[in-house]
Amino acid sequence: METEFKVDQKVVYPSQGVGIVKEIFEKTFKDQNILYYKIYIEASDMMVMIPVSKAQDLGIRQIVSKEEAEEALKLLSDEFEPITSDWKLRYQMNLDLLKKGTVKDIATIVRCLYNRSKVKELPIMERKLYESAKKLLEDEISFALGKTAKEIEAEIHTKLEPFGASLKIKPIAPLDEDDEDDDLMDDINDKPSKSSNDSDDDDDNDDVSDDLDSSNDMDSDEDFDEEF
Fold it and tell me: Which of 33, 56, 85, 180 has its C-alpha lying 20 to 30 A from 127's C-alpha?
């Protein structure tokens, strides 16, 4: 069967990162032969198995061209209209962009959340989303341009905050009380609060929210049964 991706081809798996197709194989389930991609994700040192028929739905795509990568970098320094000050709505909007997974979508998330962090400290979930999107952007652009991730990280920072430049976002109106970030975490994450001594360290070491990795491993029969 002809497949879109070939063995040894680099691909992007939205919310996971850049990977390489290691194998294309068939697996039998309930007398039905299903074709799978086995993809190694370098950033997380993880192997995932994805049904070929589901790859498009999951947004798996080839790495962008050099020109597209440069356009995404340029987008980071463009002016843009501020989005909602309601962080829950803003989080969902950016999460939807991450799931779409184009390089420009990912750059848009990075630009939005970086500039928002200059106005007000990001809530924990948005901070994790920002770090995840930034890492995805660094990985893909480094492959597309043939540069190291460190070089691209420095270039992204320069685009976001050129030396001597002012914030590239238009002024945001004062927040209404209902839009304040600080009192909304309980609506999303109804867990007991941690002590002030260890909360920062624990937050940074937590996994990215379940929304960011809900489409992972599909190699068990249980996972397969849920999908089919």
Answer: 56
* Gyration radius from the chain CA atoms: 19
Kindly state the tokens that stand for 190.
């109804």
Paired with 20 in beta bridges are 10, 40
**Is pTM, for the whole model, over 0.90?**
no
Whether residue 34 contacts residue 118, with contact meaning beta carbons closer than 8 Å, is answered with no
Strand order of the β-sheet with 61-62 is: 46-51, 32-41, 17-29, 10-13, 61-62
Contact 63, 14 (CB under 8 A): no
Give the bridge partners for 28, in sequence order. Answer: 33
Report the C-alpha gap between 81 and 108 in whole angstroms. 12
Using DSSP, state whether 211 is helix, strand or coil: helix
Amino acid letter, 199: S
Contact 35, 57 (CB under 8 A): no
Count CB neighbours of 41 within 10 A.
Answer: 18
pLDDT tens per residue, range 54-88 = 999 888 999 999 999 999 999 999 887 777 888 99
Q: Count of residues for the chain?
A: 228
Q: Which residues contact 129 (CB under 8 A, 6 or more apart)?
A: 91, 94, 95, 98, 109, 113, 208, 209, 212
Among residues 43, 2, 80, 30, which one has the least CA distance to residue 212? 43
